Amino acid sequence: MNTFPILKTGAVTQYPAKSRASFSSQVLQFVDGSEQRFPGYTQSLQVWTVQFNLLEEDELSRLADFFSDLAGAAGSFVFIDPATGTVYPDCSFEEDVFSMDVLAGARGKTTITIRENRS
After folding, report:
1. What is the number of alpha carbons within 13 Å of residue 83 lying toward its C-beta?
2. Alpha-carbon distance 43 to 19, whole Å?
3. Under 8 Å between Cβ of 5 and 63
4. Which of 32, 60, 71, 92 is deepest in the core (most CB within 10 A)?
5. How far apart are CA 110 and CA 76, in angstroms?
């Protein structure tokens, strides 16, 4: 299994890194307009929005190659929650396109959204 690349500093991400729980609800709408809701899955899934503001050229290249090797959102990988250290064994990118900004001094920045997959 592929593991999300670690930065030169040994950290998983740079700050700020935001996370939230994602829930799924199924909604049935009846002819009279009333609705019935029930959970789509039993537990929440994690979603992280990770900003990399000062990546060195080789770190940015490694991240772009990792994204390309996984074919964007099609692939899955192991991700370590930067706040808790919890290992999530099945995660994917939310986007199919990797975008980055190249800055002066051989540095770059990008923002990535990672989601936990249902196992």
Report:
1. 11
2. 16
3. yes
4. 60
5. 19
| pTM of the predicted model as reported, rounded to 2 decimal places | 0.69
Alpha carbon distance 37, 102 (integer Å): 46
47 neighbors 112 (Cβ within 8 angstroms): no
Residues 12, 3: contact at Cβ < 8 Å? no
- Residue carrying structure tokens 């950290």: 11
CA angle 20, 55, 22 (to 5 degrees): 10
User: Tens-of-pLDDT digits for all 119 residues of the chain?
Assistant: 788 887 777 666 766 667 667 666 677 888 998 888 776 666 778 888 888 887 888 888 888 888 888 887 888 999 988 878 888 899 999 888 888 777 777 778 888 888 988 77
Q: Give, as one character, the DSSP assignment of residue 105.
A: T
